[in-house]
Amino acid sequence: MKITVATIVKAGSEQVWAAWNNPDDIVRWNAASDDWHTTSSRVDLREGGTFSARMEAKDGSFGFDFEGVYTRIVTHHLIEYAMGDGRTVTVTFEPVADGVRLSETFDAEDAHSAEQQRQGWQSILDRFARYVEASA
Question: Above 80 in pLDDT, residue 136?
Answer without folding.
Answer: no
